[in-house]
């Protein structure tokens, strides 16, 4: 079993069970955001509720973040190491309208919006839609 993944789970206080490691590995290895249905296909022996709870634990500990891209099903992608999902840590997402893949543009932070009055920002989503590099080539 991958020691690095195990350490990462332990660091945020998650007991690294075999099941959790497998799910986390799967999300890390898919280099695009993955939705519940796709995960379910890969773990078809695993109970739905178990998979759901696993994702919830990961999300609460900021190992993964949910992305709503308008497809109707939430997708998940791995957070950067030591991410707390604070507004200033969040990045832009890109949804390809052709292949319907959602990408994390980890290097592009969400632009800061200056708000008047006493609005307190807790989280933010920034989604760009268009054609991704692999669809552009075709
Ligand atoms: Zn594409
Ligand atoms: Zn992301």
How would you summarize this macromolecular structure in one to three sentences?
The protein is α+β, with helices and mostly antiparallel strands. The chain has helices spanning 3-11, 18-29, 36-42, 48-60, 133-137, and strands at 34-35, 64-67, 75-78, 91-96, 102-109, 127-130. One zinc ion binds at residues 96, 98-99, 101, 132, 134-135.
General description of the model:
With 138 residues, this protein is an alpha+beta fold. The chain has one domain: Arc Repressor Mutant, subunit A, CATH 1.10.10.10. Helices cover 33% and strands 20% of the residues. It is built from five helices and six strands. It has helices at residues 3-11, 18-29, 36-42, 48-60, 133-137, and strands at residues 34-35, 64-67, 75-78, 91-96, 102-109, 127-130. Strands 1-3-2 form a three-stranded antiparallel sheet. Strand 2 and strand 3 form a beta hairpin. Helix 2 crosses helix 4 (48-60). The chain is globular, with a radius of gyration of 16 Å. The protein starts with a helix and ends with a helix. One zinc ion (ZN) binds next to strand 2 and strand 4.
Helices and strands, with pairings:
Layout: H1 3-11, H2 18-29, E1 34-35, H3 36-42, H4 48-60, E2 64-67, E3 75-78, E4 91-96, E5 102-109, E6 127-130, H5 133-137
Helix pairs in contact: 2-4
């Amino acid at each position: 079993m991958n020691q690095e993944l195990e350490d990462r789970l332990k660091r945020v206080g998650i007991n690294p069970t075999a099941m959790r490691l497998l799910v986390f590995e799967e999300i890390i290895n898919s280099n695009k955001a993955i939705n519940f249905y796709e995960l379910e296909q890969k773990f078809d022996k695993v109970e739905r509720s178990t998979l759901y709870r696993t994702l919830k634990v990961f999300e609460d500990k900021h190992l993964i973040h949910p992305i709503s891209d308008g497809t109707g099903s939430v997708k998940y992608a791995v957070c950067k190491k030591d991410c707390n999902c604070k507004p200033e840590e969040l990045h832009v997402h890109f949804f390809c309208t052709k292949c319907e893949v959602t990408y994390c543009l980890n290097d592009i932070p969400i632009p800061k919006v200056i708000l008047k009055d006493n609005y307190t920002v807790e989280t933010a989503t920034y989604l760009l839609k268009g054609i991704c590099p692999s669809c552009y080539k075709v």
